């Protein structure tokens, strides 16, 4: 049968983890430096990483995770739009995890969320996955309610600043801006074309979100994953794009993006900047 690996074994295979030497632990930073994490997710491919970030945080033994979302029921879905071998069940229904989790349901990021700051007090870091880059055919709700990367993160940034929480790892996309060479791969031009045509609204929303983080006082990292197809099986490792080096592979699993985001939340290596992250260079794109 298929090899079943425990979460512990999966994380120790992160060969190219920049935190490899942290505490002498090949699995990267221990969660001893992160007692409380706040995770936000919405709907769509980029936002799916947020659901996986809950699991990645639990994998790292973060003491407590507060989840803020409009869609708590999505954790009950059997299909998390990913290639994770064993699938997923709602961690809130798991006795091993329930006491470590708090769910905060909000009505809409289009509305002002009173008392949002309460949920950020005492947090060591935040992972915000409210971004979306599809044109909206798949998620009709985004057409009717509108995109929330800017509106949601504007409130997140304000709450973090009020609660004196500085570290945030958020998700965006490559190919947003003219002349973007952060990922030296032919697919960058294709994504840029999509952002100029079908995905114009998503581009403007993501650019407005990035501007908010750039102008904030926070220690932010904007993660730009490449790949994240629904069929990509987690490899248990990730590769950061370095300037002037071979392009990282465009075949990254959502779970591996989530692991990178959690590692960066716990022990930052990039502050006030962005990072393209993908699979091993030379990996063919899924599709």
Features:
single chain; alpha/beta; 8 helices; 30% helix
Structure overview:
This protein is α/β, with parallel strands linked by helices. It is built from 8 helices and 8 strands. It has an 8-stranded mixed β-sheet with strand order 3-2-1-4-5-6-8-7, sandwiched between helices. Helix 2 (45-59) crosses helix 8 and helix 5 packs parallel to helix 7.
Q: What's this model, at a glance?
A:
This protein is α/β, with parallel strands linked by helices.
Shape, principal axes of CA atoms: globular
Q: Which percent range fits the helix content?
A: 25-40%
Find the structural class using helix and strand composition.
alpha/beta
- What share of the residues does DSSP label as strand, in percent? 5-15%
Describe how the helices and strands are arranged:
Blueprint: H1 7-11, E1 36-41, H2 45-59, E2 64-69, H3 95-98, E3 101-105, E4 125-129, H4 140-145, H5 149-163, E5 167-171, H6 186-196, H7 200-215, E6 219-225, E7 239-240, H8 254-266, E8 273-278
Parallel strand pairs: 1-2, 1-4, 2-3, 4-5, 5-6, 6-8
Antiparallel strand pairs: 7-8
Helix pairs in contact: 2-8, 5-7
